[in-house]
Amino acid sequence: MKIIGVDSAVYSVPLAVPVSDSTHGEMAFFELITVRIKDDQGCEGLGYTYTVGAGGLAIHCLIDRYLKPGLLGKDPGRVEEVWSWMWWKLHYAGRGGPASFAISAIDIALWDMAGKRTGEPLWRLLGGNNPRVKVYAGGIDLYFSLDALKEQTRRFLAQGYGAVKMKVGRPKLSEDVARVAAVRELVGPDIPLMVDVNMRWTAEQALRASRALAEFDIFWLEEPIIPDDLAGHIRIAKEGPLPIATGENMHTFYEFQNFITAGAVSFPEPDVSNCGGISVWMKVARLAEAHNLMVTSHGVHDLHVHTLAAVPNASYLEGHGFGLEKYITHPLRIEKGEAIAPDRPGHGVDLIWEKLEAHRTK
Ligand SMILES: [Mg+2]
């Protein structure tokens, strides 16, 4: 079995409604970077990653110019070996950043091929715990008016989500408190409610805010501070009343290792599209399991429904705002608060290329 084709492309995918958070401001589109890998047995796998609007061309270049020549001829079934080769090929200019996004997209494509070769959906191939995964709606709504925020929350619940996340990190803490209070009142006491800071605060601000928000029964406090501040996370975890979720800005296995072993995170939140792929996501999940922690996910819900369905320590799947619903043949099924992992071979995501073509930038 040999890889005979590696084709990558970049798209600027418009969002139906502009969204907003504390570090990226308003976002009207996201970049989608795809890679299709073919082998000499007629099998083709799809991998993809995304950015919040910058870096997509660098990721494409890493795939097309630096990884593709060496990937051609390699055995796509030896995923770990290919992964190590990619890691060391890009290591000096890598160890995270765009290199991890490029490696992730290719790793996802290789796992998709593994599923297609065996006829198994990824969730079964990776462990097969339970295809029904609890799902929450990840609102990207920091600068929505209170009315728009409430309207969105009602829509999420009507769509079948069993939990809701909202952004915090507005200029005044009193604004965050008022908005969280309004959403908690709207959803009632039994719907889990998460809040996401997108790294806006210092540890001091995070502790003050988490004490102010604790009365609203917050399920987790997400990315209170930058991922580079391990000591700050340990402090917030030890001194504050809320469990911490973080990981969407951690792009290596070692970053998760440092946080999990230090007791700095309650809900590790790796993203297969930027942590190094499905291979690394699964290692983070197992490491979390060994520390008696539940693992969650960030972004690309059509892929994470498989990884979370594979493991016994699955927390919530994030239904992410950068959805591909309009561009895939089988959007994620959500029923009564749960997402259902599909039984199609591989990850089962088929992009509608003709629809994407209008947004192609490379
Ligand atoms: Mg987040």
Describe what you observe in this structure.
The protein is α/β, with parallel strands linked by helices and 362 residues long. The protein folds into two domains: 3-119 and 353-359, Enolase-like, domain 1 (2-Layer Sandwich); 123-340, Enolase-like C-terminal domain (TIM Barrel). The protein is built from twelve helices and twelve strands. The protein has helices at 56-71, 79-89, 97-118, 122-125, 146-158, 173-187, 203-213, 230-239, 253-261, 278-290, 301-310, 353-356, and strands spanning 3-21, 25-39, 44-51, 132-138, 163-167, 193-196, 218-222, 244-246, 267-268, 317-319, 333-335, 338-340. Strands 4, 5, 6, 7, 8, 9, 10, 11 and 12 form a nine-stranded mixed β-sheet that branches. The chain has a three-stranded antiparallel β-sheet with strand order 1-2-3. β1 (3-21) and β2 (25-39) form a beta hairpin. It is globular, with a radius of gyration of 20 Å. The mean pLDDT is 97. The protein binds magnesium ion. Magnesium ion is lined by residues 196, 198, 222-223, 248, 298.
Topology:
Blueprint: E1 3-21, E2 25-39, E3 44-51, H1 56-71, H2 79-89, H3 97-118, H4 122-125, E4 132-138, H5 146-158, E5 163-167, H6 173-187, E6 193-196, H7 203-213, E7 218-222, H8 230-239, E8 244-246, H9 253-261, E9 267-268, H10 278-290, H11 301-310, E10 317-319, E11 333-335, E12 338-340, H12 353-356
Helix pairs in contact: 1-3, 2-3, 5-6, 7-8, 9-10
The structure holds magnesium ion (MG).
